[in-house]
């Protein structure tokens, strides 16, 4: 018994940017970079020095006093949040069949992503490693400043 499958209709070519293709490429590229960033982050925070027992305000303050770690953690924040939001966008596009509900989910996802990116970036870039009044929590280099 043979089964004949009809030839699928070809979609007309659209001009402009193919956002689905670029979203797919972003997921692959950011995934590779995120693996390096995440394992570097885990190695430095959990394996170097006293491990997890050394993580406190002074540890974070000492790390974020170095521009290298500010860039590292900012990249980690932005790539991970946008990667996750793009994955959620794909799920909403696949499973939200009602156009109004899909639009609400997409705008909510965009709003949540933007808020988290802004707040996370503010924390990283406005972090003060040497606040006044917390002498017992400060990293060593803050004690030399006072």
UniProtKB/TrEMBL annotation:
Its main location: membrane. SUPFAM superfamilies: Fumarate reductase respiratory complex transmembrane subunits. InterPro entries: SQR/QFR_C/D, SuccDH_FuR_B_TM-su. It is found in: Membrane. The keyword tRNA processing does not apply. Pfam families: Sdh_cyt. CDD domains: SQR_TypeA_SdhD_like. The chain crosses the membrane at residues 25-48, 68-92, 104-127. GO terms for cellular component: membrane. One of its GO terms (molecular function) is metal ion binding. Keywords: Heme, Iron, Membrane, Metal-binding, Transmembrane, Transmembrane helix. This is Succinate dehydrogenase. It comes from Homoserinimonas hongtaonis. The lineage of its organism: Bacteria, Bacillati, Actinomycetota, Actinomycetes, Micrococcales.
